[in-house]
Design a protein that fits this description.
176 residues; alpha/beta; Rossmann fold; 5 helices; binds 1-O-pyrophosphono-5-O-phosphono-alpha-D-ribofuranose; binds adenine; purine salvage; glycosyltransferase
């Protein structure tokens, strides 16, 4: 069941950034100390026993909780960024999203075969972004891959969760 504190603090903006998109704005969850702590606590409970060594945060809203959780878990943080932002050699993936195309990349030395990786983003819509990120991370042959979102869109004909390979364990805090 969805947490009422999180529901109460989430802002939705109709028709942004384009007509027809009901934009879920997690910045209002982040600015409120109680909802920020609730997200951190729920994520910690989900992943405290999984042996996570790296958290891959998806640009840009995925960066926020990735760092907070990594500190609690004793894991490192890896930035998964839009093209041209990372200074060293990268590996890339391109993908289709709810509104347009995009590419993401990770430094080529960011993950190794001993890592247990948790990918995190604020929201799952079509799943295109996170599927591309999972495919990217799998190129590094980590021991295990988890994916987590604060919000999963399920009520606007989104089937994002079905896009992932079966070996990727997916969890979400809110289903809307
Ligand atoms: O499941 P999908 O259909 O792929 O959509 C989800 C992605 O879209 C949003 O990011 P956006 O591309 O707006 O980038 P931003 O976080 O840098 O603003 C969101 O933060 C996810 O990363
Ligand atoms: N509806 C939505 N709200 C917030 N971020 C999104 N990314 C893709 N779709 C989105």
């Amino acid at each position: 069941m969805n947490n009422q504190l999180l529901l109460d603090n989430l802002r939705c903006i109709p028709d942004w950034p384009i007509k027809g998109v009901n934009f879920r704005d997690v910045t209002t969850l982040f600015k409120n100390p109680a909802s920020l702590k609730e997200i951190s606590d729920e994520m910690y409970e989900l992943y405290k026993d999984k042996g996570i060594t790296k958290i891959v945060g998806i640009e840009s809203r995925g960066f926020v909780m990735s760092s907070a959780l990594a500190i609690r878990l004793g894991a490192g943080v890896v930035l998964c960024r839009k093209p041209g932002k990372l200074p060293c050699k990268t590996v890339q993936e391109s993908y289709a999203k709810e509104y347009g195309m995009d590419t993401i990349e990770i430094h080529e030395d960011a993950i190794n075969e001993n890592d247990v990786v948790l990918l995190h983003d604020d929201l799952l819509a079509t799943g295109g972004t996170m599927k591309a990120a999972c495919d990217l991370v799998k190129k590094f042959h980590p021991k295990k891959v988890y994916a987590n979102f604060i919000i999963e869109l399920v009520n606007e004909n989104f089937i994002g969760r079905k896009i992932f390979d079966e070996d990727v364990e997916v969890s979400t805090l809110l289903q809307l």
